[in-house]
Amino acid sequence: MDNKILFSKYRNKADIKGSKTYKVTRVVLKTEAAAVKPRVKLTLSFAKFLKAVKVIVITGAVAAAGYGIYIGVDRLNNAPDFEVKEVKVSGNKYVSKNEILAIAKVETRKNMFAVKLKDVQSRLKGNPQFRAATVNRVFPGTVEISVTERDPVAYLGENKLYQTDADGIIFPAIKSFFHGKRLYTFTGINLTLSEVGKKTSSVSLKQALSMVEKLEVKGAPYLNDVMAIDVSCPEELALVVQNTKQVYKFGEGNWDEKIDKLVCLLKNINERKKDIAYVDLRFRDEAVVSFKNNKAN
């Protein structure tokens, strides 16, 4: 409310002489504060009321939405149309479907939304036989599991309880039959349970894997019968033909040259190959051949 301005006129000393000059004095009257206080209070109270109403409306809407979601989720979790009716497994070459299902622990006739995909995937990845694993829901009632297995290259030890891949990861031996695939046996390696599921730090195992790589690259026909690699002492690494117990001693270094020398030697003495007891290739310029029954050449 604006302040009121009042004007008053009165004669000053100049009026005594009959002058018509007037002096205008402005008087400002202050408005009483009490006159506007009630209206201010009313305005503030109404604003608070509107705010309270807004909060109540929003809270109610959120609560209603939350309850609706709860009801919807509850119905989905108990809907018979979304029960697990089938678990599909793909990507496996060595580990059987039943073994994978036993590890995954996905129950049929259980609600699809109750299957914790991350938990299933974690159980599969926790098994060192698998390099990777993925799990997905396919509605209305299928759970799909895809695995990538580790490709074994050798057994560890004569009891064959464990295997290793080319990267040196040790895992429990896969029970499947490996048709058309040659698996070596590494002997002379001291393995502890703490190493299972991890990449090897064993010098002996790394030496054996390196030799496997050389043999696979060479593809030497005269060494197809080699099934074991003995690394009891890395300096005396030896290949063993398990059926005949023939031993080819390689030692350390120059493996490419030694493999070529051995193949050439076996080719030249092919008629007496089965009588060989061992071939020692650890010498620089020669190979020592020992035959069975104390025959030597």
How many strand elements? 14
CATH class of the largest domain: Alpha Beta
Low-confidence stretches: 4-10
What is the CA-atom radius of gyration, in angstroms? 46 Å
Say what the CATH topology of the largest domain is.
Rossmann fold
Number of helix segments?
5
Backbone structural class: alpha/beta
Q: Which range does the strand content fall in?
A: 15-25%
Series of secondary-structure elements, N-terminal to C-terminal: EEHEHHEEEEEEHEEEHEE
Distance between the termini: 128 Å
* Count of structural domains: 3
What value does the average pLDDT take? 80
| CATH homologous superfamily identity of the largest domain | Cell division protein FtsQ/DivIB
Order the strands across the largest sheet as they lie in space: 8-7-6-9-10-11-12-13-14
Gross CATH architecture of the largest domain = 3-Layer(aba) Sandwich
Account of the protein in words:
The protein is an alpha/beta fold. It has 3 domains: 1-78, no CATH class; 80-149, membrane protein fhac (Ubiquitin-like (UB roll), Roll); 152-294, 3-Layer(aba) Sandwich (Rossmann fold), CATH 3.40.50.11690. The chain is built from 5 helices and 14 strands. The chain has helices spanning 37-77, 97-104, 117-125, 203-218, 255-268, and strands spanning 4-10, 23-29, 86-90, 130-138, 142-149, 152-156, 162-165, 170-172, 184-187, 226-230, 238-241, 246-249, 276-280, 288-291. The chain has a 9-stranded mixed sheet, with helices on one face. The protein has a 3-stranded mixed sheet with strand order 3-5-4. It is elongated, with a radius of gyration of 46 Å. The chain starts with a strand and ends in a 6-residue tail after the last strand.
